Amino acid sequence: MQTRQLGNSDIKITPIIMGTWQAGKRMWAGIEDEESIKAIREAVESGITTIDTAEVYGEGHSEKIVGQAVKDIRDQVVYASKVFANHLKYDQVIDACHNSLQNLQTDYLDLYQIHWPSGTWNSEVVPVEETMKALNDLKQQGKIRAIGVSNFSREQLIEARQYGEIETVQPPYSLFWRVAEKELQPYCVEHNISILSYSSLAQGILTGKFGANPQFAEGDHRKDNRLFQEPHWQRVQNALSNLQPFADKYSCSLGQLAIAWLIQQPQTNAIVGARNPQQVKENAQAGEIALTQEDIDQISDIGEQVTKYLDDNPVMWKFS
User: Exactly one of 57, 79, 112, 198 is catalytic; which is it?
Assistant: First the structure.
């Protein structure tokens, strides 16, 4: 898989990135460590050498699984992790980074991201200047190679960039969730900031695997995703039907079509999770699909039949 430059850094990433939220187990159902390790290993063997994780995914469990999976080939992979919104004071950032390094069994992170802006999820408000000072110091010490942010608005990104180099922003972004296109993406194009999209398959919706009445196991947070709820769900079903002829044309699955569309958007790379090696193989194959511009435009129009009815709230879930 061809690599791309991460922002203005000298780091090379793959346009498809292995997401490991599910490897943390918390807020997911039916996840087995052994399968997660096999899936991460398969990602690297399939050419997906960039792996995204976070301290909050299972309170470090995801990071530990990633470390177990690829510690012996550390020089072949790019690690991206995140510090959560409740750890944004200077000393907390330093401690969180050291914990992540320990979990991942490495002495540096390629990319370290602020997971959510200060004040979100009932966290204490900390000036971004203080958080950025810690990240800049970690970078100077060689503990991290690049700094990124996640779930930041355009305005929050601009503020953070006053205090240091920001190479990436990580928003929710998929064919069915496109708030990022309005303000964030044009700014990233202008300043050569890499977009690392999460929920790139709209939490599995774009694979078409859910029927007319999706059911979730106890503890699966996806039941709170707004796209699974009416009246959005019927629009989703209609859009998937309209996308199928394009998948047939390119001899690929709906999921592969959605990934291919996403990584052909400006500055955009797709974080895609997987429960098992077979899912990883299928995701990786999407990197070989070259959609024509005409088809990209038509696929975009189909996606808008879902997204034009959504508000600008970037949070995908309605947690009760």
Answer: 57
